[in-house]
Amino acid sequence: MSGLPESEGTQTSELVLVDGVREIAVPFAGSEYVCPECEASIPTRKQIRMAKPTKYEGQLNDVMKCPFCNFIFSPRQVAHVLRQ
After folding, report:
1. Burial, 40: exposed, middle or buried (Cβ in 10 Å; 0-12, 13-18, 19+)?
2. pLDDT tens-digit series, residues 45-79
3. How many domains does the chain have?
4. Three-state secondary structure of 7-42
5. Interatomic CA distance for residues 64 and 8, integer angstroms
6. Deepest in the core among 2, 7, 11, 32, taking most CB within 10 A?
7. Are 11 and 59 contacting, i.e. CB atoms less than 8 angstroms apart?
């Protein structure tokens, strides 16, 4: 037990603290993703997943590399929108 209250043990992004931030669901259809940088659709056969240490595989987020622009990102189920 770490001695921290449960609310302090959860890490959140600093973006959540900004006024006017909206949380929206990211529409990933099946196993196909969209690159947040170039906005290209990444088909399953072109996905590049970065390696994770085996010991921490269940605790770390998946990290992917876009095959088109080489942007490295972590796909999430929610996004925090600051502006449109």
Report:
1. middle
2. 999 999 988 888 888 888 899 999 999 988 877 76
3. 1
4. HHHCCCCHHHHCCCCEEEECCCCCCCEECCCCCCEE
5. 28
6. 32
7. no
